[in-house]
Amino acid sequence: MKKVVSILGDPYHPHEPLVQFIQTILKKLPQKTYWKDSGMEELGKELGDKPDLVILSKENRLSLGDAVKNMWLTKELDHALENYVAEGGNLLALHSGLSCYPETSRYHQLLKGRFVHHPKQTQVTYQLTDGTSFSFYDEHYFTQVKQEETEIFLRSFSIYGESLAAWRHSYGKGKVLCYTPAHSLAGMLEDMNQRTLIENILWFFESK
């Protein structure tokens, strides 16, 4: 059985739709899972218990306003997240899990990329490397990624331009997956979006 811990929700991204999404995804995995939806206050302890997967879909700001004064990622948690992955853990940074984290943080180094901005919601097309694509109304995340240090497997297109939507790589003995879709529950539950995320979650559980 795979133990999964999630940290979900922030001022811009309600908790309950994310819970429904993660619950739906985990039920479709071939592996049996024990899932605990936890909070940032418990993250240090959860990491110490060495779960098989940590899902972080929470931007760094605790409240709207000054990101520097309202960040939840302490130096201790920053180090703990890096140690968890380097020692063999798996980290999924989902949507807002890429937002407002300092470029000087170890977490940013783990991800090898970050959210930069998004325009107002629009129709976004996501395209896999084999040319398969799917579309829905979404926040089009524009990202900055160290492309030479990771594997890009999903790109995004809208009237506002093109961006990198998902990437994955090894880090130490562990693995990191960054996945930008989706903001709304409808987008989260879109069939191809689910299938793409599930396929890449399974990558975590392949032999390292």
Name the features.
6 helices, globular, Rossmann fold, two-stranded antiparallel sheet, alpha/beta, 208 residues, 9-stranded mixed sheet
Structure description:
The chain has a single domain, classed as Rossmann fold, CATH 3.40.50. A hairpin with a 2-residue loop joins strand 10 and strand 11. The chain is built from six helices and eleven strands. It has 208 residues and is α/β, with parallel strands linked by helices. The strands form two sheets. It has a nine-stranded mixed beta sheet with strand order 2-1-3-4-11-10-9-6-7. Strands 5-8 form a two-stranded antiparallel ribbon. The protein is globular, with a radius of gyration of 16 Å. It comes from Enterococcus saccharolyticus 30_1. Pfam families: ThuA (PF06283). This is ThuA-like domain-containing protein.
Concise overview:
This protein has helices spanning 15-27, 43-48, 75-86, 106-111, 185-188, 191-204; strands at 2-8, 33-38, 53-57, 90-94, 113-117, 122-128, 133-138, 142-145, 151-158, 161-171, 174-179.
